[in-house]
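To: structure desk
From: M.T.
Subject: fold request, one chain
Message: Could you run this one when you get a chance? Sequence is below, nothing fancy, just the single chain.
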Amino acid sequence: MGISRRTRGAAVAAVIAAGQLLEAGVAQAATVSVSIVNDNAFSPFKAKAQQGDTVTWTNQSSRQHNVTSDLGLFRSPRVDDSNTPGQHIQPLTSYSFQFASSGKYTYVCTLDGFRGVVVVPLKASPAAGGTTTVFTITWATSVPAGYVEDVQVKRPGGSVFKDWRVGQTGTSATFTPDRGAGTYSFQARLRNASTGVASSWAGPRTISVG
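Reply: Done. Structure tokens follow.
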């Protein structure tokens, strides 16, 4: 049985669409591994993840530990969360959290006090262009409920970052160069909308305008 012209056309369109996604640099989410070692350290201390990646912490030490966000964004189950006296509690072996929004996130093992960092940068596309190019600045795949993203820009000739998009619940915005040619830098953070507590700034991500 032959393939109809409509079916063949749909298949070609699907192949073209897939190729366009690859050309646009659409990446699959990945898993970033962090180990708890020697009962006193996260390794690596600073983990780098992309928006949408999952970080998995694995306890490779001899004692029980946990992972708690300074921002209140995540908290692994504590090893002493049992209310049953004398019940044996299995050590926490691993915990995972998906980072959807840009920021520099600090966290701690509240049982022993050692710390770690996860850095999630924002994205800028294209990386270079002219003064009329419309760039897309993406700071999240999604923003957690109760949180907002703040984005700042440093323009050519400037020495400090200034607010560009504040209190965002969306994921991206377009940017047309408004200070002529040069290098524009962007940074972003996640902020608790109720308490005002925020992650540190992640960045900078730059675009080059000729």
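Reply (cont.): Residues 31-78+89-120 form a domain with the Immunoglobulin-like fold (CATH 2.60.40.420). Let me know if you need anything else for the meeting.
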